Amino acid sequence: MSPSASARKISYRLKEATKCPACGTEHFKEEMLSGSGRLNAGKLMPDLRRLYEPTKKWGKVQPLNYIMQVCPKCLFTAFSKDFESLNANELQAIKTTTPHRMKLVETVFGKLNMDDDREDAHGAASYMLAIDCYHLRTADIAPTPKKAVCCIRAAWLLDDLAQDFPQRPFNKAADFYYTQAAKEYGVTLELMQNGAEPVELALPIMGPSIDFNFAFDGIVYLNSYLTRKYINDIAKTPQDKIKVLDTAKRYLSKLYGSGKASKNKPVIMIDMSKEMFDDMGSMIEKLNEEIGNPPASQPETT
Asked: Is the terminal CB of the chain with fewer CB neighbours within 10 Å at N or C?
């Protein structure tokens, strides 16, 4: 955070130190102050990102930058609830992979001190580090859905950095994490069906933005959105693309159908789901025409 931003008192440090369970380093987590018009919510994007408009008093404020707990020395990173709960195997894996995390940050951002006041680079780095760390965590803490939300948040913040610093290759990093998000959301959807991870443990932080938690509905919707957008990276042949798209579309049909029958579903979610459902149907039709298949039957949405 720049000196001018610090003077605006956007954030503060917790008075109680947090001790890293991996290397023992103590640090004081930075938290964002709330109220006084610091956040000026803008529109909700098709990928469920809430934009925040700069204000004359506070300037640009990005609340996502302050979420993750990061050890500034070994760069072990997690959501706060998971930060102090390493078992013996996780602890060894985190210690062993410290050089990898340091290299990751240096490669993408250059010199970046994760103990400095947070700007977008620190926010993006925190989610990238969390993804790497959750790869090493056991299934009982539901690491996959947490990786999914970290992937899309990393992509959002890298997108912002690409706009601010077009001379840097942040756009390539953003594309990578969007594609990773597509894969992680797909796996999360499978886990919701087979119970291999307790996905419900991750629901309070699934968001994916922080102003409204779309929870399970958000997982279903984002799986379809990301699958549609990055289908060429997820599947290579028309046949595989049809299979992946059809699976995502069937999940989406249940969300759209249940939404029409329930007043508890946000209207914007139902409207976007309907648009997505129709768009994916058109993509499948075009792919079927490409390989000479007859039109597929449409799943029920009521």
From this structure: C
